[in-house]
C-alpha cells in the first residue's frame, strides 16, 4: 500500500529504470535494470513483495493443515511483477487478473485480513468466502478478479477500458495473464479489439515459462512474445520480471503511453514460479537445475541487495506479524449462513455495493 | 419501474410496425434516454445488422455508440461484460444463436457468475440480443434453437419476445435490470407486423401471458412457436376444442405459476418448443407441470419439439423437422382423445 | 463388437484399481491395440494429465501419440475432429467440462453435424473425455456439471462412467463407435477404488444398469451422484424403504426403457443429478417418466439437483448447493409419504 | 477438371509466375504477374473460372425465381483464387472451405450437376440436398465443406493435416477462409497449432476486403495480414487474387514447401466480390467507384486478354450448355423422402461411403 501511495513522487524517476524497447526491437537478453540508490520507495516495494511471499508461505502451511482447500496457485518467485506494475497503477484504475492472484490483490492494496479470510472461505473474506484463492474480487480497489478460465479476463479488461473511453475518462486498465493464455483465442480477439479501438489497456504477460507442465516452446510456435503483440500493431516491452525496479520502470513508461491515448501496450515480464503450478504437482516437467538457477535471481534477494541501509529484519517481523494477524482474523471469522447461499445470484432489489461505479 | 409508470398506457392510435422496427425503436429509444447505452456487434453499423434491425441507427448515433465489431464473438461479448462492469449499459448483438456458442464461456463463466462469486460486489448490467430458430432454409449451422442452454444458467434472465409489443418493450425493462439479460428474437418474426401502442413502452417481464384463453388443453410455448400454437388453436376451435395458449415470454425465470393455474383448469398440457426435445426447454416445462399439477392432469403432458436432427436445407425436410401448426393440433387432439380413452 | 466377444468375461481374479487407473488402462489398451488411437489435450504428456490420468503414458507411447496441446480448447478439439475425418481415432481430453464451452461450437456445429449435413459422407469417430462436477471446493468456474448441454445434441453419444469397470470399458466401446462420443468422468471418482475383472474389457453402452434392486421407489442417476444414491438407498433400507437405483450410464441416447420398467414396478421416481435443476438432464428424465409412466405413478416424479447458484468455495456452502445422500433420502421419504398422504 | 489433370506438366512453369515473397518482406503493391504465352493449360483455367461465373449467374436467377433458397454467397469476382489454388492441389489432398464454396467445389472437380442439385435441395445433390449452397461436402474429392461458422473450418484442416502426418502421408491440406475470419480465436489457435506441430497445411486467405459490410481496416488493427502469419512463424505470401496465374504460381510454391515438410504456409490472395455478401444486401458499405475499379480487373477478362488464339466463344457455349444441363439435372431431381430425415444423424450399422479413408 505504501508503495502505491508514494508512487506519484517516484514514478518520474522510475522511468529511468525502464528497460523496455519499442515494438519489434525487443532484446530479451538486455534485461538488467539500472539501479537507483535505495530509498523509502524501494523499501516499500520490498515490503510489498515480502508481504506476498510470507502470506503465501503461510497459506502453503495452512493448505497442508487442510484449513485452506480447493485449488491454490502460489505466486512465489513472481512477486516483482505484480509489485512493480501495480505500484504504477492509480487507485481508480481497473485491474484484472487470473487465478494466481494473491500477489495482485495484496500489491493492489486489498487488506491481507480479507484475503486470508477469503482463502479460509469466511464471510469476512473479500468475496464473502465464496471465491476462495482463485477468485479475489475487490470493488474498493477495482480488482475485477481472480478469473480462473484461462484467457477469460482479457475481454473484461477490453470492456472496462472501452467504458472508460466512452465515459470520457483517461485512465488505464491493467490486465495480467500467463504466457500460456496467449494461445487461447480470447487473447487474439482481445488484443485485436483493444488495438483496433485504441483502448487504454496495459496487457501484462507474466511469462513464467510454463503453463502447468507445458513449456512455452511446446505451446507456442513463436516464443518471442513481443512479436505476437506486433501482429496487432501493439507496442511491446520485455522486462526482467525478477527485478522489481525494471518492472516498475517498464510499467511506468507503458502506462504513461496508455493514458496518453497511445492505445494498448503489451508488457512481457520474464519470471519464474519457484513452486508447483498449483499446491502440489510432480514438477517432473522442469529441471531441478533450472529451478535452482532461477532461484538465484529471487526478486526479494535481488532487491534486498540494493537496500544497504534498510533494516530488513524489522520489515520481516512487521510482515510476519501482519500475516499472523490475518490468520487470526480468518480463524475468528464466520461461515456465511447457508440461508444466504442464494443471495447475489441476481442483484438484490436495492443494490449499493454492487452498483457499478 | 418508475419511469415506466409515468408513461401510462393510453388509448392512443396504434401504429402498425414490424417486429424488426419495434426492436429498432426499442434500441433507439434506449439510446436517446440513456447515454450509457450503446449497441455493439458484427455489422450493426454500416451494414445495418444481419437482419436489418439497426438500419439507420449509425447515422443517428455515430460509430462509437453503434459499434461494428470484428468477427470475435467471445471477445466482444466479453468486452460487453467489461463495459457493463465499467458503468455502461451495453446491448450486445450476436448475429444468431448459432454463433453464440463461441461466447457461451464468457456468458456463463463471467456474466452469470461474477455477482455471486464476488460476494455481491460486481453486477453485470448487460443485454445480449440474438436471432434464433429455423424455418428459413438456412440449414443446420444457421437454424439452431438453443434457448434451453441459456435457460439453464443461474444468474441470467432469458427473454423471448414473441410479439411486436414485447420486441420493443422488453428491451427497456431488460436495460433496467442490474443483471445480464439474454433476449432471443426468432428470425422468422422480423417481418411480422403488429400494432404498437405509441405511448406504452416498457413491459413487465416477470409474467407469462395467456395469449388465447381456452378450456380443454393448455399449449405452453414461446417465441417463434407462438404463432404456430395460435394457428393450431384456431383450427382446434373449429372442432370444438378450446385450447388455451400461453406465451412464456420469460424463459428464465419461468413464470410457472401462470402455467400451473391454466393446467389446473384444463387438465391437459402440451409444451411446444422449436428446439430438440431431449434436454430442451420443453423438458423443463413438462417436468414442472408433472411435478406441480400431478393431481390435476387428465393425461400425460405432451411435447411437440423439433425432430432430433440437424435442420436440413430442403423446405420439405425442414418443415418435417420443425413443429408446425398441424403437428401441434394433432398432438392436442391425441392428448384429448388419448386421455379420454384412458379414463373411459 | 466382435473383438469384444472374443474376450469373454471370465471369472478371473479381480484386481482392485482406482477409477483413474482404470481410465488410464483403457487408454493404454486402446493405444496398444490400434495405431490410429492417440491422446491429445492440455498437459496429458509431461504433466501426466490435470487429474493424473495419463501419468506414464508419454514414456510408453511418445510425444506424437501422447500429445500435449497449447491452451486452445476450440482449436485442439476441432483438430481432433479433423484428425478423425482424416482416418485417426483421437481421444481428446478437455481438462474439465468448464473449459469445454470454448469447444462447444466445434462439438455441436462440426462433430455432431457433419455426418447428417454431408448426407452421410463424413462421419467423425472422435472420443472426447472430460472431468465434470463439483464437490472439491474448486469454486464456481471449476465445479460445473454441464452434461445436459451435450445430451441435448443429436449426433453425439454421451457417456458417464460411474464405476471402475465402466471407466475402463466404455472407452473401448466408444472408440469402436463411428460417431463422436463424449465421456464425462466425475472429478470426485478418480480416487475411488473398485474391482476390475482383468479379462473383461469393452462394456455395452446402450443400456442403463440397475445398480441396486428395490421395490418402493426408483432413484435415477448417473456419474458422481451414483454413490450418493447408493448411500441414500442404504439409509432408506434401514427404515424399510427399498429403493431401486438406476445408473443411466449413457446420457444420450437415454435408455429410458430400463427406467420405465422400474417405475412400472415401484410407482415412484426420484431423479438425482448434480447439475442445476432447470433445463438440466434431470428435467428430461423426469419429463419422460411423466410421459410414459403417467398411469403407473403414485406420486409426482421428484428431482434432487443442485441449488441454482454458481457453486461457492466454502465446504458448507458447496455441500448445501449440491445433492447429498441426506437430501436424496429425504426426498425419497417425502415422495413416499407425500403420495400416501395424497392418496389417503 | 482438365486444369487439375494437366497440372503436373505445368506446375514447374507456374512457379515462374509466382509473385510471392517470403514472410515479412511482402510487398502488396508488387502484384502484377509475369505472363506466359497462352496454352492449353491457361485455357483450362479460363474454363474453370467461366464455369464458376456462369454457374453462379444462373444461381442468382434461380434464386430470384425462388427455386434456390436459404443463404447463397456468390464468388463472382473471386474465381481466380479457387481456380488458381486448386489447380495445384493433388486429387488426394484435402480441401476445407467456407459457405462461399461454389467456386471451390467446381474448381475441385465436384460435378456441376451435383452442385446444382444440392442448391435445389435435391437428393441427387452432393449432400443429398441437405446442406444447400453453404455446405458442399464431397468425399470423392476430399472436400470437407462448406463450413458456415466463420473460422470453423480452420481447426478441421489442422486435424486433417495432423492425421496425414501421423499416418506418414506426405500430402497437403488446403484451407480457404476470408480475411474477416482472421479476427476469430479459431484462426489464432489453428495457426499456432499448425505451426507448432509443423503440419502440412496451406492456409489461403481470400482477402476480398470486407466481412459482410465491415471493411478490413475496421475489423483488424493490423491490416497487413502477412504480419499476422509472422506472429506464428508461418511464412506468408501475398498474391494478386484477380490474376489466376499469379495465384497458381504462388500456390505452387507454397504447396511445394508444405509437402516438403516446411510446415504450414499462409497465402493471401487480394481479391474482391463483385456482388453483395449474400444474395442481396444494401451494399451501402462500399463505394460504387471502388466496385467499378475492381471490375476493371475482372479475373476472366484479365486472363482472356492473354488467350489470343483461343476460341473463347466456343468455351462459352460449352459452359452455357453444361450449366443448363445442370439446371435440368436439378429440375429432374427428387426430394429426399421425409422418411429419411433421421438417417445419418448417427452412422448406419454398416458404413461404407461414410467410412473415413
Ligand atoms: C480455458 C482453460 N483451460 C484450461 C485451464 C486449466 N489451467 C489452469 S492454469 C493453466 C495453465 C496456465 O498457464 P499460464 O497462462 O502460463 O499461467 P500460469 O499458471 O503459468 O501463471 C491451465 C492449463 C483453465 N483454467 N482454463
Ligand atoms: C462465427 C460466425 N459469426 C458470424 C457469422 C455471420 N457471417 C457470415 S459470413 C460473415 C463475414 C465473413 O467475412 P470473411 O471472413 O471476410 O469472408 P467473406 O464472406 O468475405 O468471403 C459473417 C459475419 C458466421 N457465419 N459465423
Ligand atoms: Mg505460465
Ligand atoms: Mg471477406
UniProtKB/TrEMBL annotation, chains A, D:
Its EC number is 1.2.4.1. One of its GO terms (molecular function) is pyruvate dehydrogenase (acetyl-transferring) activity. Residues 48-333 form the Dehydrogenase E1 component domain. Transmembrane segments: none annotated. Its cofactor is thiamine diphosphate. SUPFAM superfamilies: Thiamin diphosphate-binding fold (THDP-binding). Keywords: Oxidoreductase, Pyruvate, Thiamine pyrophosphate. InterPro entries: DH_E1 (IPR001017), PDH_E1_Alpha_Subunit (IPR050642), Pyrv_DH_E1_asu_subgrp-y (IPR017597), THDP-binding (IPR029061). The keyword Oxidoreductase applies. Signal peptide: none annotated. The keyword Oxidoreductase applies. GO terms for biological process: pyruvate decarboxylation to acetyl-CoA. Residues 1-21 are annotated as: Disordered. Gene3D superfamilies: 3.40.50.970. It is an enzyme of class 1 (oxidoreductase). PANTHER family: PYRUVATE DEHYDROGENASE E1 COMPONENT SUBUNIT ALPHA, PYRUVATE DEHYDROGENASE E1 COMPONENT, ALPHA SUBUNIT BACTERIAL AND ORGANELLAR. This is pyruvate dehydrogenase (acetyl-transferring). It comes from freshwater metagenome.
From TrEMBL, chains B, C:
Residues 17-192 form the Transketolase-like pyrimidine-binding domain. Keywords: Oxidoreductase, Thiamine pyrophosphate. InterPro entries: THDP-binding, Transketo_C/PFOR_II, Transketolase-like_Pyr-bd, Transketolase_C. The keyword tRNA processing does not apply. SUPFAM superfamilies: Thiamin diphosphate-binding fold (THDP-binding) (SSF52518), TK C-terminal domain-like (SSF52922). SMART domains: Transket_pyr. Pfam families: Transket_pyr (PF02779), Transketolase_C (PF02780). Its cofactor is thiamine diphosphate. One of its GO terms (molecular function) is oxidoreductase activity. Signal peptide: none annotated. This is Unannotated protein. It comes from freshwater metagenome.
Amino acid at each position: 500500500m505504501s508503495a502505491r501511495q508514494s508512487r506519484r513522487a517516484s514514478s518520474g524517476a522510475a522511468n529511468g529504470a525502464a528497460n523496455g524497447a519499442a515494438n519489434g526491437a525487443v532484446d530479451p537478453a538486455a534485461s538488467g535494470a539500472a539501479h537507483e540508490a535505495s530509498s523509502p520507495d524501494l523499501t516499500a516495494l520490498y515490503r510489498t513483495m515480502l508481504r506476498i511471499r510470507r502470506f503465501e508461505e503461510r497459506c502453503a502451511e495452512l493448505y497442508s493443515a487442510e484449513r485452506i482447500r480447493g485449488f491454490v496457485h502460489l505466486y512465489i518467485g513472481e512477486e516483482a511483477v505484480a509489485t512493480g506494475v501495480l505500484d504504477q497503477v492509480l487507485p481508480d484504475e481497473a485491474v484484472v487478473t487470473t487465478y494466481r492472484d494473491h500477489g495482485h490483490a495484496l500489491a493492489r492494496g486489498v487488506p491481507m485480513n480479507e484475503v486470508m479470510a477469503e482463502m479460509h472461505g469466511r464471510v469476512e473474506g473479500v468475496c464473502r468466502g465464496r471465491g476462495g484463492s482463485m477468485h479475489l474480487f475487490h470493488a474498493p480497489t477495482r480488482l475485477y478478479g481472480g478469473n480462473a478460465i484461462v484467457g477469460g479476463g482479457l475481454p473484461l479488461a477490453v470492456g472496462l477500458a472501452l467504458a472508460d473511453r466512452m465515459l470520457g475518462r483517461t485512465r488505464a486498465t491493467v490486465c495480467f495473464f500467463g504466457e500460456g493464455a496467449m494461445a487461447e483465442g480470447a487473447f487474439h480477439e482481445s488484443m485485436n479489439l483493444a488495438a483496433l479501438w485504441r483502448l487504454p489497456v496495459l496487457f501484462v504477460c507474466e511469462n513464467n515459462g510454463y503453463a502447468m507442465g507445458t513449456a512455452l516452446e511446446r505451446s507456442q510456435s513463436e516464443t518471442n512474445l513481443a512479436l505476437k503483440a506486433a501482429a496487432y500493431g501493439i507496442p511491446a516491452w520485455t522486462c526482467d520480471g525478477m527485478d522489481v525496479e525494471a518492472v516498475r520502470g517498464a510499467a511506468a513508461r507503458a502506462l504513461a503511453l496508455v493514458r496518453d491515448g497511445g492505445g494498448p501496450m503489451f508488457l512481457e515480464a520474464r519470471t519464474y514460479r519457484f513452486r508447483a503450478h498449483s499446491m502440489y504437482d510432480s514438477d517432473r516437467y522442469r529441471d531441478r537445475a533450472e529451478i535452482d538457477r532461477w532461484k538465484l535471481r529471487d526478486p526479494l534477494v535481488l532487491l534486498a541487495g540494493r537496500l544497504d541501509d534498510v533494516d530488513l529484519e524489522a520489515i520481516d517481523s512487521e510482515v510476519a506479524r501482519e500475516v499472523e494477524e490475518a490468520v487470526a482474523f480468518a480463524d475468528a471469522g464466520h461461515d456465511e449462513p447457508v440461508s444466504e447461499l442464494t443471495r447475489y445470484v441476481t442483484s438484490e432489489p436495492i443494490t449499493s455495493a454492487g452498483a457499478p461505479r | 419501474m418508475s419511469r415506466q409508470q409515468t408513461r401510462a398506457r393510453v388509448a392512443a392510435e396504434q401504429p402498425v410496425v414490424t417486429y424488426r422496427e419495434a426492436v429498432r425503436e426499442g434500441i433507439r429509444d434506449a439510446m436517446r434516454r440513456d447515454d450509457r447505452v450503446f449497441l455493439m456487434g458484427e455489422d450493426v453499423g454500416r451494414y445495418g445488422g444481419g437482419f436489418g434491425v439497426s438500419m439507420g441507427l449509425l447515422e443517428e448515433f455515430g460509430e462509437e455508440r453503434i459499434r461494428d465489431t470484428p468477427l470475435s464473438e467471445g471477445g466482444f461479448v466479453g468486452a460487453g461484460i467489461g463495459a457493463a462492469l465499467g458503468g455502461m449499459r451495453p446491448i450486445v448483438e450476436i448475429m444468431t444463436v448459432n454463433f453464440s456458442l463461441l461466447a457461451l464461456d464468457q456468458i456463463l463463466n463471467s456474466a452469470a457468475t461474477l455477482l455471486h462469486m464476488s460476494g455481491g460486489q460486481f453486477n453485470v448490467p448487460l443485454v445480449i440480443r440474438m436471432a434464433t430458430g429455423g424455418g428459413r432454409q438456412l440449414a443446420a449451422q444457421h437454424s439452431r434453437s438453443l434457448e434451453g442452454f441459456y435457460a439453464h444458467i443461474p444468474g441470467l434472465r432469458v427473454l423471448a419476445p414473441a410479439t411486436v409489443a414485447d420486441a420493443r418493450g422488453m428491451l427497456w425493462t431488460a436495460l433496467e435490470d442490474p443483471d445480464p439479460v439474454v433476449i432471443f428474437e426468432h428470425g422468422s418474426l422480423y417481418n411480422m407486423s403488429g400494432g404498437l401502442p405509441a405511448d406504452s413502452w416498457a413491459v413487465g417481464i416477470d409474467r407469462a401471458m395467456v395469449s388465447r384463453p381456452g378450456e380443454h388443453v393448455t399449449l405452453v410455448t414461446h417465441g417463434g412457436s407462438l404463432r404456430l400454437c395460435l394457428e393450431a388453436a384456431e383450427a382446434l376451435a373449429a372442432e370444438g376444442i378450446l385450447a388455451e395458449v400461453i406465451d412464456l415470454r420469460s424463459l428464465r425465470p419461468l413464470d410457472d405459476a401462470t402455467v400451473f393455474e391454466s393446467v389446473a383448469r384444463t387438465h391437459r398440457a402440451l409444451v411446444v418448443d422449436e428446439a430438440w426435445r431431449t434436454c430442451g426447454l420443453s423438458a423443463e416445462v413438462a417436468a414442472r407441470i408433472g411435478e406441480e399439477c400431478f393431481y390435476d392432469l387428465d393425461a400425460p403432458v405432451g411435447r411437440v419439439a423439433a425432430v432430433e436432427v440437424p435442420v436440413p436445407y430442403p423446405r420439405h425436410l425442414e418443415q418435417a423437422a420443425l413443429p408446425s401448426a398441424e403437428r401441434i393440433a394433432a398432438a392436442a387432439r391425441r392428448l384429448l382423445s388419448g386421455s379420454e380413452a384412458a379414463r373411459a
